[in-house]
Amino acid sequence: MIEVKFELRSVLIAARATAHTEEPNAGETLVQSAAQILSLTKTPIVAGYIPFKTEIDPRPLMRALAAQGARLCLPRTPPKGQSSTGLTFNLCDPDNPDHLEKSTWGVMEPSAHLPQVRPDVVLVPLLGFDHAGNRLGQGQGHYDRTLEAMRATGQVLAVGAAFAAQEVASIPVEPHDQRLDWIITPTKAYPIPTLGGIE
What we know:
The chain has a single domain, classed as Rossmann fold. It is built from 5 helices and 12 strands. It has helices at residues 2-22, 26-33, 35-38, 59-67, 142-151, and strands spanning 45-47, 71-76, 88-91, 100-102, 108-110, 116-117, 121-124, 128-129, 135-136, 157-161, 182-184, 189-191. A hairpin with a 5-residue loop joins strand 8 (128-129) and strand 9 (135-136). Helix 2 packs across helix 4 (59-67).
């Protein structure tokens, strides 16, 4: 399974890089296809992310959600060697550089002094996905551990954000992998039948 995922990651890294180059306005287009997401919850706390390398940019969607009353937060990754603790989330303006700092992983994240919250909606970056809502990430397991813990204590809507080119027929699944509740791409958005999530 590890070898299969490794090979698939290599293919999907290339596919995402191509899409990132060919679709420079994908983040803005994401807002149009995600119109349904905007009305799923009332004044939710929404966790987004600062795009890393060639990840699709969710910030236009985050701004649209904020304009409708959502409060925004970003994830903080645990220090290296403490990854079993999962992500934490801090209220944050993703457009304010004074709210951001670079993690030990090289990802921009919220400053530790900002208020910590539990999001209702989590926009999840990924390398690949399938129509069943299975997701392939970078391999660190941060989002899988975090979503598992959150679903054990209440509802949360996990929304995978990606380029359409990142879809594959089937993602290899292990017991710890957490499925997504929605998939949004610049061309479509659709719900996934899952055990958790906000209806």
